[in-house]
Amino acid sequence: MFWLNPTEVVVLGVSLGGVSSVSVDRFATRTAEEHGDLGPHVVFVDAPEQRVTVKIRRRVNELNAGAVSGVEVGALGEVSFRVGAAMSDRGGRVVRAQVVVRGVDHALSERDGFIQTISMIAVSSDGAADPITEEEDAS
Amino acid sequence: MSSIDGQVLFDSGPHRFVVRSVGTLFFPPLSLDFLQTTTELIGPIELAIRQTGRIVATTESGMRSLIDAIKAAGEARVNGTLIDNAGQSWTDMTFLRFRPEDRVDRGRVISLEYRADYVRLA
After folding, report:
1. Domain ranges of chain A
2. What are A's interface residues with B at a Cβ cutoff of 8 A?
């Protein structure tokens, strides 16, 4: 999942400005694969261990300096942001997840300027529930 | 479809069979003590077949039922003809052991990797 220009981005209680995109990626960190005796091909595959990552990319300028106190590697908390097809006040959706911050890194380019990327791993409440929730914005 | 003595225990998931070491059991020189200078022959190796695979269920209770049935067969030392997925058969085989791996996998389905051993007891 990939969202451009989300609003009301809050990470571990810190409101972030200049966010250009948020992405949610899903990977199998371990697969279960089995072959049979009848040929070379895999006959069973499952993904019993998965990881969901959240990446926030934001432009850093003088108004929203890159230092984000509280958003430290290993910190646990909630990330939330609002997305809407037309960027209007109505009809938007709020995406939430419990996350652990994995890293904060920076890049500089002539086109985009300073870009800060906050990488997080989403945590499920019980291992079975999807760690990413999306709901209609009631406000 | 594989079976042991007519019991189909493992068809919930993929599995395969391999014949283990065959021939004569022996101790090579110096394996017993430093005076042993020649190979000591013990006797023919029992025919042993190892099965590896994964049992698969869609529910926790289904997985428990599969394991219970396998456990009962192992404890009863079920003996009979072992038939593999290709229709090859070995007579007078005893189901001795089911050894699960260290975790039950819960993804799209619930599954458990294992190995099982059958021996033609002397």
Report:
1. 2-30+41-136
2. 32, 34-38, 43-44, 46-50, 127-128
Residue A40 is classified by DSSP as: S
A65: left (phi over 0), alpha (psi -120 to 50) or beta: beta
- Fold of domain A2-30+41-136: Pnp Oxidase; Chain A (2.30.110)
Contact B111 A38 (CB under 8 A): no
Contact in structure between A46 and B109 (CB atoms under 8 Å): yes
- Quick check: B114 contacting A, CB < 8 Å? no
What's the pLDDT at A124?
97
Which residue does chain A place closest to B104, by CA atoms? A48
pTM of the model: 0.83
Q: Scan for tokens 């371990």, then name that residue.
A: A30
Backbone angles phi, psi at A70, to 5 degrees: 95, -25
Which residue in chain A is spatially nearest to B17 when comparing CA positions?
A37
